[in-house]
């Protein structure tokens, strides 16, 4: 079958819309007609080859759409079902067996290697293999091959075109609060960087009943939005001064119970640890790279029994967590539509540029035939 996909052919881009051939689903695979797909920061990291993703490749990992066909053995979904695609996992390693697929022992091959286990991708152009299977989906395309493992059925009464970010960005922020840190009612949370992940963390902290929610970001408009979505205090980190001391000042010198870093900057993460109250926990969520050292004040870590940990994809099992996120959205408790902007798929390069310039928090690309959802 012929599809249209955005292909990256060289590090740094651009995205070229090309006509490709897509295979029918193999056993365990699901062919999805994509309705819309979010654009996530990790797509840019892969575009720039800061992760060793082979090119030419079709990126995209926040897809939502309708099942068109299923391969042999697929029982979870059937043609016509509305689905969100999330990250992929193996289903049988120790982490997957313990309902922790974000820590799948095969996380890298199944999400970043650009091919199936047998080396094929399912996508080609005049016989040239185009890498795919990114996060088990490659959703910057009118159609995507995904897997029974990473597809989640969603109800028909919520706008499908909006739901793609529930597969990665929103899931990461909300999951860090609700699954990984298990933020307690009455506690205090600081969120460093309020893009999609940070704002989702703030909304979830409010859901969890946190008493003090501190948003930290240099962009004033994002701090305003953070306040509307649940932040009780905001800090602009510019203008000198120590970030941890500013947070200490807001908490009567006690510090916060939880800090969440989305910046991936070592010095900011250090501040996240320094702003913790005794027994506090700092979650590293941003895309810290291999070989990147994080300076830690060992005495501060030890003395209060403080913790520093990494969190991938919000500790989520998408099968369980995506439906919870849909329910929260439906109840008005996760209004992530407030920071979404829709673009036609043909404007993918403009959407990416607007996002990288900081003018759009979460771009969503609408495939031909998909209407902008009405609020
Ligand atoms: Zn696994
Ligand atoms: Zn992502």
Q: Would you identify the CATH architecture of the largest domain?
A: Alpha-Beta Complex
Radius of gyration: 20 Å
| Shape verdict | globular
The CATH class assignment of the largest domain is Alpha Beta
Low-pLDDT runs of 5+ residues are none
Tell me roughly what share of residues is in helical segments.
25-40%
Helix segment tally: 11
Order of helices and strands: EEEHEEEHHEEEEHEHEHEHEHEHEHEHE
Bound molecules: zinc ion
Mean pLDDT equals: 96
What count of structural domains?
A: 2
Instruction: Report strand %.
Output: 25-35%
Give me the CATH fold name of the largest domain.
Quinone Oxidoreductase, Chain A, domain 1
The CATH homologous superfamily of the largest domain is termed Medium-chain alcohol dehydrogenases, catalytic domain
* Sheet with most strands: 7 strands, mixed
> What is the terminal-to-terminal distance?
34 Å
Number of strands: 18
Helix- and strand-based class?
Answer: alpha/beta
């Amino acid at each position: 079958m012929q599809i249209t996909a955005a292909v990256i052919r060289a590090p740094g881009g651009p995205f070229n819309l090309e006509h490709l051939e897509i295979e029918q689903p193999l056993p365990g695979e699901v062919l999805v007609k994509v309705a819309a797909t979010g654009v996530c920061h990790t797509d840019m990291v892969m575009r720039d080859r800061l992760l060793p993703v082979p090119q030419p490749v079709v990126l995209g990992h926040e897809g939502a759409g309708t099942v068109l066909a299923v391969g042999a053995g697929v029982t979870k979904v059937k043609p016509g079902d509305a689905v969100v695609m999330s990250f992929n996992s193996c289903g049988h390693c120790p982490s997957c067996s313990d309902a922790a697929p974000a820590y799948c022992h095969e996380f890298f091959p199944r999400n970043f290697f650009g091919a199936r286990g047998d080396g094929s991708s399912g996508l080609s152009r005049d016989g040239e293999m185009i890498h795919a299977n990114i996060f088990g989906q490659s959703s910057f395309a009118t159609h995507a091959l995904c897997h029974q493992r990473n597809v989640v059925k969603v109800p028909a009464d919520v706008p499908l075109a909006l739901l793609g970010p529930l597969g990665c960005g929103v899931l990461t922020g909300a999951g860090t609060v609700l699954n990984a840190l298990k933020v307690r009612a009455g506690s205090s949370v600081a969120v460093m960087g309020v893009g999609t992940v940070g704002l989702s963390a703030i909304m979830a902290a409010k859901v969890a009943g946190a008493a003090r929610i501190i948003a930290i970001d240099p962009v004033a408009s994002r701090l305003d939005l953070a306040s509307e979505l649940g932040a009780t205090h905001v800090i602009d980190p510019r203008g000198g001064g120590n970030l941890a001391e500013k947070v200490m000042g807001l908490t009567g010198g006690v510090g916060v119970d939880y800090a969440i870093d989305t910046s991936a900057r070592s010095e900011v993460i250090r501040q996240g640890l320094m702003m913790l109250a005794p027994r506090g926990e700092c979650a590293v969520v941003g895309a810290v790279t291999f070989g990147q050292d994080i300076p830690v004040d060992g005495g501060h870590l030890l003395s209060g029994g403080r913790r520093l940990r990494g969190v991938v994809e919000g500790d989520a099992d998408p099968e369980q967590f995506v439906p919870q996120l849909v329910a929260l959205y439906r109840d008005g408790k996760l209004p992530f539509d407030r920071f979404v902007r829709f673009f036609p798929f043909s404007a993918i390069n403009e959407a990416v540029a607007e996002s990288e310039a900081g003018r759009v928090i979460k771009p969503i690309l609408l495939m031909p035939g998909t209407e902008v959802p009405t609020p």
